[in-house]
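Supplementary notes for students who missed Thursday's class. We covered one full example, reproduced here. Read the sequence, then the structure, then the short commentary at the end.
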Amino acid sequence: MKLYKLNTHTRGCNKSYDADLVLNPQDHPTAKVGDVVEIYSPEDENGTHLLLQITELNEQSKTGRNVISIESCIATAFKMRSYSNVVMQIVNPADVALDSIEITFKDQYMGRSEMWRLKTYLTNTCVYVNKKIDYNDMQIRCQVYEMWSQGERVASGVITDDTKIVFRSSTSMVYLFLQMSSEMWDFDIHGDLYFEKAVNGFLTELFQKWKKLGCNHEVTIVLFSRTFYAAKSLDEFPAHMRDCLQLDYKGRYYEDFYRVAIQNERNDDWCTVLAQLRKLFTSYQETVLRYHERQHMHIPHATNSTATQGNFLEVLNISLNTFEKHYLDRTFDRTGQLSVVITPGVGVFSVDRELTNITKQRIIDNGVGSDLVCVGEQPLHAVPLLKFHNKDTTLTSADDYSLPHWINLSFYSTNKKIAYSSFIPRIKLPILSAVDETDVEESERNFLSCNQSEYIHNSLFDYDAYDEQIFQPLPAQSTCSLQRVVRAKKTSVPSFETYAYRNNDWENLTPTKIPSLRRKMSDPDIHHGTSGMLAALTDATNLSESLASEKNARRTIVSIAPIVRPGRALINPFDPSHVTIKLTSNRRRWTHIFPKGPTGVLIQQHHYQAVPAKATPAANYSRQLQHSTSSNNNCNANNNNENDYNNAAAGEQYDQVSTHSLMSLSKSIASQQFVMGEEKVDFFKRRHNSLLTATAAAANVPNLTATQAKSYLWGATGEQEWTPAITTGVDWKSLSIPACLPITTDYFPDKRSLHNDYVISDYTLLPDDVNLDYARSRAVYRKPLSTEEVCKEIVSQRLAQGFQLIVVEEKPSASNGCCSTSGPGCALTSNQCSTVLPPSAETRKEYLLSIGRIFHKISLTGSVITVTGYRPRHPYPPINVDYRYRFHAPQHETYEISGVNFTTEKLENFNWNHMDLYICTRGDVDYPLMDSLKYWRFRMYLLPRENMVNKIVSFGSQRCDIFTDAVVDNTREQIDDFVRLIENVSKLKRQIGRKARQHDTPTPRITEKNHNLLNAPQQSINVRSKLEASRISRIFPGTDAAAAAAASNAAAGVIPRDDQDDGFPVDIKFSANITLAEIFEAMKHPITGVGYFTQTQSLPSCTFVSYDALLWLKARLSNGRHPLDILEAMRKEHMICHASGDWSKPIIAGFVFYYVVQQDKNAKDYAPPLNDYSAFVNEWLEIEFQGCSFLWHDEPSPSEVPNFLRDTTAPQSWKTKRVYRQSHLEIDVNQKSDRMEWGHVKHHTVMQPGFAFELVVEWVTSSGPIVSDLISGWMRKAIHCSYQLVSVPADPMAEPFTKKSDPLRGPIFIPLCVTFLPDGAALFDEFPEESRADRMLFLQEAILARFGFLPCVLEETNKDLPKEYQYVHCTGNMFALIRCASNKNQVESPSRQEANVTRCVYGHTNNTNVPKKVGFLWAWNHMIPNKKWKALTINNSENGELFQLKMLKDFREFCSNSDQRLANFWANCQELKRKSKKFEYNNNNNDDSKNI
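Structure (token representation):
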């Protein structure tokens, strides 16, 4: 065996040493790039074999003869010493192929289509533990975490087409729910409260693991509980309590409480939060149980529920309501969603059947990880166990259970030792009491008293006939052959939870005929036959007869599935392995995240079993090992503390099978406990075909693929058999680095099932034909997608919406019935076609995808793409649950009422045809993105940078209402900066003559208007109220007299400057009688003219923006002519025109393109206009400027009397027909991606200084990291232009009872004191009544302006509701909302939801006639990155007070008139009005315009 000397090198220090492995090509004449080699030390042949891939072979980088060099970090990790001798040989990649690999990534958003592209990129590459992977095309960074091959963990291997890739994110959105049920106040066997066990034990350990692994999750922590009231009727409750009460199936009244402790936070060290939780714990129960108590009022007795009866499913649904909107508020620094419920119970919950079905379907469809951590002791039966509410009160009705496979269960136990015993009790004995427990159900009490034989006779059923029917494979469901499957002692229940009835049939079934019908609901895992059977059933006199007769006719009757069986065989939680269920796609949705154990079945690494259920020779070997360790490990097997993920000593991982370990630690099994988090040490296995594979094959271990029809009822994999000996530990891996939904699965229905149970539809796409037409009609020509790219993008879109690629194993035998396609093209790996075709045939690819019961087949043949959809013939009836609860969010003072709907989404209604055509046409306007397509969006506000914040943060200003104290008006600067930013974003450049615009001169730009503020004539319409000459000029007034006086003095003292600094070289002023033609000629002058943009595709030559032209004219006109009129006259004379070539578009002031029509058409750089307005505006951002017309035309100054005190109030905001416009957006600006990427930008049509300007980026065909790159580029440019671009949520206020709102978020109501006038006089008494509501609104606006809020203009959605005005703070950190109570909207809408919206936030009143309180709704911007949020800590403040909280506190004080602040503000405004009146009277002769 040839030996080589080993050198090491550091990557990057030398260009020729940039690969992991460098070797001398002369030593290896047969080696080629892509070959995989194994390297190991000759002394330790059974030790670790390192696998590396030859990535380059060039003469320059050659080492000496018989020398190889590997990267130094790899050498260190694999304990390979420099200058030692090693063996190196080329190996066959198939021998070292990986079964599965786990890849972790952090602080980035990786969509599912990016995961698929990354998988394709990694196929046929060699990886080793901790290898860093940089996929530059997609700008993705990730790291190899763990690899499995042939049943054991390995240190290196090759990724092939068949390798399952599991993506795990260490920056996820995590919801931690603590169930505060009555057991939290009980003691465990060690004498700790269960709360202490949960917080001091479990959470402390979890947070330590997060820290060790460098996780950066965005966490929300919620305490929740259910309170029961001892009352028989609603009349026993006082009125203020009735709003939120709910009734359960036993007629008990209850209320659910949620206390949000932490909301969307990231921390480097979470241990500080634990103290906060302990503090909440001390008062939680008291607060919740006595929440409604009032003096002199009787309230029904309140008790806290047990864990079993708690609101477990409701909690999961609440998190799902947030998770399923992941595409709305997309952030680019996290991926993945996880909800964890921590309960003091034992994993048994009493639940409603309908809600179970909703929860199950939503969790599975949305691909959300749901973990349940029990701190109670593990019971002796299978858990998690859902016990359905038994609404049937007859003596013999047995309880029905379900074992949900969609919940990942962990049991946490502490490592405390008891001196006198090592016994851990697993049953909690009930407390003895003479009194009948009200919670014990009737049937439970009577069950044992009833004679067993009698019990069977009472049943409606002939059990033999029932079993006969059950044991046969149902024709509509079988996925292999029709042979009888004979099992000893096993019952096969096609449904393991329920039987379905459908909306049309079930109404006909009377409860008398089928008593238990009302508790049977549809279950998302059952395939149904046709609905005829139900009707037949109702007529059958004897149910057992009708079942028995089916024995003979079973081949003809297809519809056996949906039979409602009153006495069907129920699940026994103590022996669940005797029930196997039919395999479905839901059952296999998550299975590809589990590794294969030595016996070939998928395993969960936190289930430990003292003895494997069935011993194969390989397992026998491991059994002895396990026996040798079970004694040392008995106490901590349950929790696996010492060894995070690799509990070598506890059973089911079978790691001891391979005795070769890289570690030079002691060989004894017990000491093989490595901590992955610290050293990331793995069991670096020797790569050899161990005896495991041979024995596994010999023992004929069931390999569960699509061909096998059954799976175990219990467990997430469905392949591990439950035995009482299984101990469940904590799945720390899932809780620390949760897995994303895998992109592959392996279930596809067989031909028969497809034919009977599915409706098939298909359509074809011819991208080449479609593309040509659309590409030509574009304003800017862009290369269309090739047919292959379209096909790949169509698959990508389905993956992005939660579909999975189906990987079906090819079988050599022709009898394989697992796929309905003809020919061998069905088993397709995700990146290349395995179909064997003659070379002359055209290319053919086929992809199978599934989500729930929907399957898609996408096949590409030549230039034709065929999309075939299979959807269920009998879809589930849609279910909708209306849920009410009380929640207390941070900074709130009470538990507010809220309501939310839980609904199942009908995935079959998604309009895939529209989406596919959108892709084919490259996002053409004919196929717009609709809300139902669930496209991704990122919403932003462009806000001017504000210096006043600094005054509060750095200098600790005591008061926060200082934002209107600025004196210099910088409207001009703001607009100039805005134009510069939009030019930047639009990638426009100026021609040479325009360079003077960038101000290099340090001259101060005081653009204050040159006339006295107070004695100028009034302006009438479209005012820009330059009220307090504030830094951010606003539509609404509101200041004190001192600031205004200072402003007017400053204005009066400004020396009038003739030539305004507008960035143009000014040659001369025009004479008073200059003609239009002469002005036009001057405009065209190459050096002193307006200045054009350089040539750009789709813009005609000589293009300029109207804002520039207006300023240019303003600087040169001397006789008071209006620049806008002159431009309009030029347009009418056909001198200039809108840049699209559309003559009908008038001149609009703003960033709007116009071009010079009269130019030399023969010039070499001449470009004609498009003559297509809609195509033009789809490419360019055009924005009108309002509220700043004084910049280009001298206008009389508006009155600085605050708006709410004027005789005639000014209009509220800018008026326009359209609030938003949408344009095409090229996303991949840096040309990095390997896919065609595009999107759209939706933006405000009007920009007004002092208002927030909204931009929304929308996309489906783009990669997260590329979009993130584009937006961060914009954010940098905005800062450069004195703006800030702040991300904001789609629904900032998250008001309760609204459709898209986050159930655990809600606005804070801040009442406004309106009784501060002496003698209790009402505000605005002196004004007519119809204007008072508006005046109140303007007063509230003026207050918000003082605190630095800017108005946001939104589209009006519902004209019947009271008008709402929304504001955002100039820092972007908070929002405020004023709901207008104008007279016509005084009567509240009768609809329940609207009534509750106002009722629940504006105080708890049931009487809609009570006048609503005046006030503000205040909400936080949770989209602000956590670090940025926490950066605004006020200097020298005690406990590091946050600026945001100080603002809220100060705002509350101002609104409540503390220190007479509100009264003083009112008095100052009245004083201003008096002064203004006096001036008007004095200057009456000059004043000829109306007052505003």
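Commentary. The mean pLDDT is 75. The first helix runs from residue 72 to 77. If anything here is unclear, bring it to office hours.
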